[in-house]
Task: structure prediction
Amino acid sequence: MNFITAPLKYEFFVHGVLAASLVGGICALIGVYIVLRRMSYIGHGLSHAVFGGAVVSTVMQWNFYLGAGAWGFLSVLLINAVARKKKVGADAAIGVITTASFAVGVAIISRYRKFTKSFEATLFGNILGVTSEDLWIITIVVILSALLIFIFYRQFLFTTFDTEVARIYGVPVDWVERLFSLILASVIIVSMQVMGVTMIAAGIIMPAVTARVLTDSFNKMVFLSVLIGTLCGSLGMYVSFYSDVSSGATIVLVSASFFLLAYLYQMVMERRPPKKEAPSAQKKEELQTHIHVHGQEHTGFYHVHEHVHTETEDDAQKKSSTQMPPRKKP
Amino acid sequence: MTTATSEAVLATPLVHFSKVSCGYRNKIVFEDLTLRLFSKQFAGLVGPSGAGKSTLLKSILGMAPLLSGSISISGKRVNGQPPAEVGYVPQIETVDWDFPVTVEQVVAMGLYRKSTRLPWLTRPERMLIGELLERLNIGHYVNRQIKRLSGGEQQRVFLARALIADPKLLILDEPTSGVDVKTQHAILHLLGEINRKGVTILLTTHDLNAVARHLPWVICFNQKIIAQGPPEEVFTSKILSRTYDSEMSVIRQGDVMMVDDSPHEGHHFEKHRHPSKKKPHEHDGAPHQH
Result:
C-alpha cells in the first residue's frame, strides 16, 4: 500500500495524477468517436496544429487556452471542409492542414529563439508543472465535454454511424460536427501539458481501440474506453514517478500494454471453439417435431426405422433437394 | 394493376416533380423531369448505372442540388430539408457492419425526430421498437450486433429503422442488391405487405425479373422517363433497349415473363408478346396517369 500512498505526499504528484486521470478519461471518451469514424490520425494531426496556435498566442501575448483553442477549432473546421471534397480524403486533409499549422509554430520559434525551453514542455508534456489553476481548467473542460457528449449522445452516435443518413433523418449534422470539433480542440489543448503534443494521439486512440477489441457494443465500448483511459493516466503517473521517465511516455506505454493484453485475450477467445447458441423462443417454435419413417439401404441390407427428430424448415428443404426419395418397402 | 395501385391513381399525387432539373457542378443529371407518385403506389425505378436513379431518390429526400423546378411531398415543397414523412433505406453495401451497434440502437435512430432526445431509450420507445421487430420476425435479435445477422435480417433491421416513425413514403436504394435470390424474394414480398398496409414505396433495383414478379408499377429511367406502367406492359425489348442503351430481350410464355438482363448486341427479339396486353406508355418525360 505504501507503494501507492507514498507519492501522494507530494502535491505535484497529486496534481499530476488527477490531471492525468481526467485527461486520460476524456481523451478516451472522444477517442471512441474518432476511432469509429476511422479518423485516428486527427488526434495526432490536431495536436500538432494546436502547437502552431500555442506559439502564435504566446508571441501575440494572447491567453494560451483561448488562442490555441480557437486555432485548434479552426483547424478542425478547415479539415472537415477540405475532407468533404471528394478528390481529397480526410487523411490527406489532416496531413496538409496540421503540418502547415505545426510549421507556423516551428518557424516562429526559430525566429524568436527565447521561447524554445517552454515549447519543449508543450511538445513532450510537463506534468510536474500542473498548477491548481491548470487543474481547475482541466476539470471544467472535462466536465463540460463529458456533459455535451452525454446530452447529444444520440446525435453523435447517429452521425458517427452514418453521416448522410443521419442528415436525412433530421439530425443537424453540420452543427453536430462543429460541436464535436470544438470539444476535440478543447480536450487537446488541456491535454497538451499532461501528455505533450507528440503523445496526445496515443491517449485518444489506444484506450478506444483496446475497448473496441474487447466488445461489440457501443455503450460498453464507451464505458471500457473511459475506464481504460483513466486507469492508464493514473498508472502511467506512478510508473513515471518510480522509473523517472517522462509521464507522457509512461502513460502511452501503459496504454500500449493494455492494448497488447486485450489483443492477446481476443486471439485466445477466437481460437476457442464457438459456443452453440441456444435457439431463441421464436426459433424453437419454428422447429418442427415429427415422426416419420426412413427407408434406407446400407451395407447391403434394406431396413426401415421409425424415430422422432427435430428439424428446421431449412433443414427439411435442404434434405429434400439433396436426398434420393426413399425406396418403397420391398 | 393491384387494388392498391388502382386506388392510388385516383388520388392526388403524394410526390410531385414539376419540371425538375437536378445536377452537380458541371453535370446535369436530369432535366425538366415531371413525375407523379401516388399514395399507396408500389413502384420500382429501373435503369442503367449512371442513369440518375440515386439522384432522383436523393432529390425527394432534399439531398440533391435542385437547379430548377419544384418537388413537393403531400403538397409541401421540399426545400433542401429532408421531409419528415419519408423513410429511407440505404444500400446495405454502404453500411459499416463493423460498427458496434445493436439492432435496437439502429432502429432507435429512426425515432430521432420523435424522440425525447434523452441519451437513453425510454420504456415506450423500447416497446415500440420491440413490437416492430417482432412484426418483422427479428424480435429475438434486439441486442445483437448488426454484423452477426444474415443478409435478409440486416435488410429488415434497416427497414425497421425506416418504418419506426410511420412514414407515408418509403424510399429504398437497391434493397435487393448483395443478397441471395431467396432473400430478394422475401424482401420484395415483405415490401408488398408493407405497401398493402398503406405505405407508398419507391425503390431502385437492377433486378428486372424480381420487379416483373413482385412490383405492380415500374418506371424505366435513363436521365428521363422512358416509360412507366405495369411491368407486363412496360417490359418490352424496345423499351428496355432504349432504357439501357443496349439490346435487351424479353421472353414471354403465357403469363410468365423473363427479361434477359444481360444486355447484348446483335439480335433483338421478343418471344410470345402477350396479345391481350395494351401498348405500353412510351414517352419522353411527360407523365402518364394510368
